[in-house]
Amino acid sequence: MVIRPPRNPYPSDLPENGSTRQFGGKDFTKSVFTINNEKGEKLSCLFYQPKERSGEKMPVVVYMHGNAGCKLEAEELAPFLLPQGINLFAFDFSGCGQSEGEWVTLGWKERKDLEAVLNYLNSLGTVSKIGLWGRSMGAATSIMYTAENQDKVHASVLDSGFASFIDIANHLASNQFGIPPEFVQFLMAGVSQQIAQLTGGLNIIADLNPVKYAPRCKVPALFVHGSDDDFVEMTHSEKNFEAYGGGSKDAMYCSGGHNDARPRETIEQMVGFMKKHLTA
Q1: 12 vs 9, 16, 33, 34, 89, CA distance in Å?
Q2: Which of 14, 189, 245, 260 can pair with 215 through a Cys bridge, CB separation 3.0 to 4.6 Å?
Q3: Residue 203 burial (CB < 10 Å; 0-12/13-18/19+)?
Q4: In whole angstroms, what is the distance from residue 211 CA to residue 191 CA?
Q5: CA 26/CA 93 separation, integer angstroms
Q6: Cα 229 from Cα 256, distance rounded (Å)
Q7: Which residues contact 9 (CB under 8 A, 6 or more apart)?
Q8: How far apart are the C-alpha atoms of 266 and 160, rounded to whole Å?
Q9: DSSP designation for 176
Q10: Rounded to an integer, what distance in angstroms lies between the CA atom of residue 171 and that of residue 233?
Q11: What value does the CA radius of gyration of the chain take, rounded to a whole number of Å?
Q12: Which parts of the sequence belong to the AB hydrolase-1 domain (predicted)?
C-alpha cells in the first residue's frame, strides 16, 4: 500500500504527440516523450510550448502529481498557465503512470526524478525561470528537493503536502481502525525494514519528513490545502508552512478533499503567484 500503489490508468483516446491546442487565442504544441532518470528508468513526460516562439527564453512550471496519480493531472492547469506566458511541463514519477520503475517512495527517490527533469529543461537553453507545482507526494518531493537545490528553483506551489509519513500513518490507523499510536510505531518498525530492503535504503520513519527539510527552503512558496481533506489533514501544511525557511511564503485554504479538483478561483490565485515570481 505504501510503495506499490496502483498505477493511474490512461485513457485510450489521448491526443497524439505533437497535437496543437489553443489557449488564450494562441496555439500551443503538446510534446510527449521520455527522458531517463539517474537509474536509467524512462520517465514519461509532456511539455506544452507555444507553436511559434520568437526564440526568447520562457519560464516553465513543472507539475508533480500525487501518489497513484499521473502527469495528466497537469492538463487542468494548461488553460490558466499558458496564456500567462508560462510553459507547462509534467511527468510521471518512476513507478507511476507510463514511467518505468517498480516502487513509489512518496518523495524520497522522486527527488532524483525531478533532478533529471530540471537537468533536461536547463539543457534546452530555452528556459528562464522554473517553478515547481506539487500535489501531495509532489509537494513533498518539491520541499525535499528544493532544500538542497535553492539555485534551481524560483517558486513553489505546495498543495496538500504531508509533513511526516508517520503522522499520516497514526492518523489513518487511529481514525479508520482504532489502532493506538504506540502500536503503529511498533508495526512501522517492521514494515520500515521490509521497505528499506525493497527500495535500496528508504527509511519511511526517518526519511519521509518534509517538515525537517522545510527550514532549508528559501524560495517563495504558496501552501494550499483543502479544508475537507481527511487523508492528509490541514495541520500538515500548517506545520510545513511554519517550518519553511523562506521569508516570502503564504498559505491559502479552499474547499475540497485530498484528491478533489481545486476551485477555479483557487487555481487562478496559484497561477497568479507563479506569474508574479516567474515573469517579473
Answers
A1: 9, 11, 17, 19, 21
A2: 245
A3: middle
A4: 22
A5: 30
A6: 7
A7: none
A8: 13
A9: I
A10: 9
A11: 18
A12: 59-179
Q: The domain 19-164+208-278 belongs to what CATH superfamily?
A: Alpha/Beta hydrolase fold, catalytic domain (3.40.50.1820)
Which DSSP letter does residue 268 get? H
Q: Which amino acid is at 18?
A: G
* CB-CB contact of 130 with 124 (8 Å): no
C-alpha cell at 110: 522522486
Helix (H, G, I), strand (E, B) or coil at 87: strand
What is the grid cell recorded at 254? Answer: 479552499
Amino acid identity, position 206: A
Which grid coordinates belong to 196?
528499506
Dist CA 160 CA 236 (whole Å)? 8
> What whole-number distance in Å separates Cα of residue 17 and Cα of residue 124?
19
DSSP letter string, 123-167: HHS-EEEEEEEEETHHHHHHHHHHTT-GGG-SEEEEES--S-HHH
Place of cell 518512476: 94
Helix (H) or strand (E) holding 63: strand 58-64
